[in-house]
Amino acid sequence: MNRIFVRMYATLLALAFAAPALAQVSPFDSRTYERGEMKITVGPARMIMRGPMFPWPMMFDDGSIIVIASPVEEGKGAAYVRSTDRGETWRPFVPPAAGYCIPNVQFPDGSAAMHGSGGATPIPDRPNYYKVARYETKDRGLTSTLTHGTLYVPPDVCSPKLHHQFHGNVIHTKRGELLSVMQGMEEEPAPNVPKGYKNPFKCFLVKSTDKGHTWTYVSHVASLRDVSGPTADAMNAGWHTWGACESALIEVAEGKLVCAMRTLDDNHKPLIGEASDTYRDLFHTVRGNDIYPGSLRLPADKFFTLSPPTTPLLICYSDDNGETWTKPVAMREALGNMPQMAFDGKILALSSGALNYPRWGNGITFSLDGGKTWTELINYAPFFTSGYGGLLSIEPGRFLAIFDYAAPQPWKEHTAHWVGALDIKVERR
Question: 32-271+307-428 has which CATH code?
Answer without folding.
Answer: 2.120.10.10
